[in-house]
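Appendix C reproduces, verbatim, an entry submitted by the partner laboratory led by Prof. M.T., so that reviewers can inspect both the input and the predicted structure.
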Amino acid sequence: DSSSNVEESMGEERVKKDINYKKVKDFRVMAWNGNGIRSLINKGDELRNFLRDQKPDVLFFPETKGNSKTEEKTQNDLKSIFEAALPDDSYSFYWSYSEVPGRFGNCLAINNKYKVEEIRYSWRKDEIDPEGRIIIIKVKRVSFVQDKGLYILGLYVPNASTELKRLQYKLDWMKKLRKTMDKLKAAGNTVIVIGDINVAPTEHDLANPKGNERTPGFTLEERNQFKLLLSEEYVDVWRERNPLGESDPGYTYWNTKFNARIKNTGWRIDLVIMDKDSYNQNIVKDVREYPKYLGS
């Protein structure tokens, strides 16, 4: 039972100096991991309430578990929920699919008052990730730091799998992610990563660290790779704002067994990451999780 609604609210919006300066009150980047988009659609009231309450500018859905050959109904159903919840707004939707139907996949929705200048479905512009784990957008003429562009990377990071069979694949995947982040940042952009990162970074990020030291998502190898992903250049935004996490552990995932959600014996694996240069400009107003929405 995974439910993640992680919000990053930006304060002042600035645009490139070659067009008119513009301000908006908030720019809200959010994610909801419903562990299958149909489960969210079938419980439409929960998603409609969330949309009405939060009015996200960008909403990312990791792990949609879609099928590109039969997805027209799902796409239309999701669009209808957005239209019913926010009749004064319109959204564009970007979908990524696994080559294996019903596995992995993502969706990203963006309010049409913002335009997408570039869209990628892999680390390279001319490739498509075969598991549909990557949606990268550049938002046109939007900047939170003077003269910087804005890239949002919506990700569903691979699981290390049973018996850690995909551990090395995951570690290599995270290295490619870091290279991509560095390239976008070096080109003069604010970089935001949001979604299911599938790593609990520290012992403060899950309820039972001792019993999960060789569990996928908390192995030493994955935690070390996450440290390298951030190094001195990027920030785990929620943890930066909640350095100890004792009062609010920030869990975003609970196993469906043993009443884990009721007991709040969860994991914090759905994260927001930002380049430190941009973060240090005090552009993040708030970052939080929303456990009251139970759409998964």
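The longest helix spans residues 167-186. Additional entries are available on request from the coordinating office.
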